[in-house]
Design goal:
Blueprint (H helix, E strand, L loop, with lengths): L6 H11 L7 H4 L7 E5 L2 E4 L4 E4 L2 H4 L8 H11 L13 H13 L4 E7 L2 H19 L8 E5 L8 H5 L4 H4 L10 E3 L17 H15 L3 E6 L3 E2 L5 E2 L4 H11 L3 E5 L23 E4 L11 E6 H5 L21 H16 L2 H16 L8 E7 L2 E9 L4 E2 L6 H11 L2 E2 L6 E4 L7 H19 L14
Parallel strand pairs: 3-16, 5-6, 5-7, 7-10, 10-11
Antiparallel strand pairs: 1-2, 2-3, 4-12, 8-9, 11-12, 13-14, 14-15, 14-17
Helix pairs in contact: 4-12, 5-12, 9-10, 13-15, 14-15
Bound molecules: pyridoxal-5'-phosphate.
Pfam families: Aminotran_3
Subcellular location: Cytoplasm
InterPro entries: Aminotrans_3 (IPR005814), Aminotrans_3_PPA_site (IPR049704), BioA (IPR005815), PyrdxlP-dep_Trfase (IPR015424), PyrdxlP-dep_Trfase_major (IPR015421), PyrdxlP-dep_Trfase_small (IPR015422)
Amino acid sequence: MAPRTPPDTLADWDRKYLWHPFTQMQEWEQEAPLIIERGKGAYLIDTQGRKYLDGTSSIWVNLHGHRHPTLDRAIKNQLDKIAHSTFLGLSNPPAIQLARELIRIAPKGLKRVFYSDNGSTAVEVALKMAVQYWQQRHPEAGPKHTFLHLKLAYHGDTIGAISVGNIELFHGRFKPLLFPTLDAEPPYCYRCPLALTYPSCHMACLDPIEQLLKTRHREIAGFVIEPLVQAAAGMIMSPPGYLKRIRELCTQYNVLLIADEVATGFGRTGKMFACQHEGVTPDLMAISKGLTGGYMPLAATLTTEAIYSAFLGKYEEFKTFFHGHSYTGNPLGCAVALANLEVFRTEKTLAGLRPKVALLKRLLKPLADLPLVGDIRQRGMMASIELVQNKTTREAIPLQARIGHRVAMEARLRGLLLRPIGNVIVLMPPLSSTRDQLSRMVEILADSIDTCTHPIGAPDAARSPVL
Ligand SMILES: *Cc1c(COP(=O)(O)O)cnc(C)c1O
């Protein structure tokens, strides 16, 4: 085993050699990096031995906690057989078994599994399958290769995924590289431009989408959507029936429904997949993050027999789906993904979630009284708090004030790790978090927001928002 490098040396090397994702490195270089060395359950432990609650499930991937014995064992057992062999022209037992299990739990009608390595590639695969499907299924219909998606959508960071994404801060500067798409307003109820409330808003939100589909369906290959929760947009939650209606419209107008369940899949919304809340089967479904319980990078794109069969033919017809990655079907990843599904069964994870979801809701409710808290959104174990300048006008806090970041830094001092999205604080605890851990997380969250509202030690008269 390599000798243990002292924490300070690691910190120096990190600042000297690394470039971190979504991180302003100039700032990073000025700070002491938090270096996580180990984990246990809902806790992360750094090189100094300090313990933190993992309030984001290590960016939305972890489900059953860190160092779960079943998951650990699955990797160790597979390692005794083989770490990796290619999936191009070969197969392997865990990948085969996992595909069968995934089809068993997926929305009815999804029949085939295509593996890749991460959420972005799972989305890329879905886009390419959709385009090729229409070329081969209806070659006479003319080009059908445009995608419809919602504004503020996030489907990953590769070029195809950002083409169907729409977060200006992340994607704006790459516009020259992106293919053109059609977009529609998302169901962002808190910032509804018409100030409507559910259910009267339902049609107002869906009518423009129906109009787009009606007039442009001939060129639209697919509608890409994060079902129920637009996560990276700041947990924008669609109203009941919204997804179901989108499914109906896609069927009516002959447009493929591409569900990006990368964030919502594997119990995060309270059911195995978000689509299952509304009895929806998409034509293509991208999964990743929770697929391995947060252990290994693995992803899959699931599809129907109708789409799969459009790729069948004699070799020389060249209907093959020419796409694949070096690590496709990685046995270690598939073995731990199988163990993840086993834990869902043996620990009855989904049934156990119901009381936890209700508890989280009760815990979050009083935070609505804090002066900065504009909106609290929750679906299953995905929750967010949108902080605002003015609760009545809902005026946003300027991004420059970095309120989310400041709250996260306060929470870190108190032993909770968070990763906010602008002014939106995201809380996405591991599904296995205990009641006490959930209570502690929300308690720290409330304290941290409160501290950022009132400068500590300021006399009462001066207790105005520091923004
Ligand atoms: C995280 C995410 C992705 C991208 O997944 P990566 O594994 O980070 O490439 C795609 N879609 C959604 C909805 C996500 O939340």
